[in-house]
Amino acid sequence: MPERTTSLQDIYAAQGVCFGCGPANECGLRIKSRPQGENVVAIWTPEKHHEAFEGVLSGGIIGTLLDCHSNWTAAWALMRAAGADHPPCTVTAEYHVRLLRPTPAGGPVTLSARAVEVKGDRAIVEATLEAEGKVGATCRGTFVAVKPGHPAYHRW
Amino acid sequence: MPERTTSLQDIYAAQGVCFGCGPANECGLRIKSRPQGENVVAIWTPEKHHEAFEGVLSGGIIGTLLDCHSNWTAAWALMRAAGADHPPCTVTAEYHVRLLRPTPAGGPVTLSARAVEVKGDRAIVEATLEAEGKVGATCRGTFVAVKPGHPAYHRW
């Protein structure tokens, strides 16, 4: 049960303010991503103002969830590949969201992601967003560990 | 000066609640997209909680802005192609965001989009997000006019 473990964000970036995943951003989405085998999983519940129209989750919020969750999945994969004890600070290079059907906004959604390629300083991550038992959206993105001097180098 | 005209959202969807573009969503981004020649332009100013980390705009917010702005660009293009007096209700099929550099969050950003292909019920739109004179992100997406029976059919 992934909810019973501490999330990657709370372990490695408790002071993070990112709109999508910063535990310290009170107006943010504050997703909690937890490793579960080879996947990373997050369960998140929308608020009313996250809708696109009545009862349906905004595609931009869906993209934000998938982007941040995938970025953490990449950071975790890069950490494991390096045998490090903490994740590198990663940023999104690009992400591609496919919206397969309207995603109901009345209850929790489940994000599930996996690094499908890890090479050097970057990871390619594939992710899904599921609600009421159906995959509403998929995402594939590239995430990069930044070097010293990049403004994100100390993001967590 | 596009700010002096009424936005597409305010003309055609004043009661819209979409997180990204609904004029009636007080917690939303409330972008205002205005035709300007063949392009559609929006100028939007971030709030502090839209950051990814200190001084830099969240990639998820960037995607949300580009998605909603491109969707309105598609609706407007489809309206013009059909010779209609109001836009069809459109939804996002897919969008691909490329983040070229960190986008400063301390001032306004400019979204600019153009339909590069309009065919039947769908449009392909390319868009950029610029801040402090530099393009920070680009987006290419496919947007579709929904049919009667789709939950978005009466979204505006």
What are the key terms here?
homodimer, alpha+beta, two-stranded antiparallel ribbon, 8 strands
Given as residue ranges, the uncertain stretches of chain A (5+ residues, pLDDT < 50) are: none
Report the β-strand fraction of chain A as a percent range.
Answer: 35-45%
Coarse morphology of chain A: globular
According to DSSP, the number of beta strands of chain A is 8
Largest interface: A-B, 42 and 42 residues
SS content category of chain A: alpha+beta
Q: How far is the first residue's CA from the last residue's CA of chain A?
A: 26 Å
Order of helices and strands of chain A: HEEEEHEEEE
Note the total helix count of chain A.
Answer: 2
Range of helix content of chain A: 10-25%
Sheet with the most strands: spatial strand order of chain A: 1-2-6-7-8-5
* Rg on CA atoms of chain A, Å: 15 Å
Main beta sheet of chain A: strand number and arrangement?
6 strands, antiparallel
Please identify the oligomeric state. homodimer
Instruction: Give the overall pLDDT of chain A as a whole number.
Output: 96
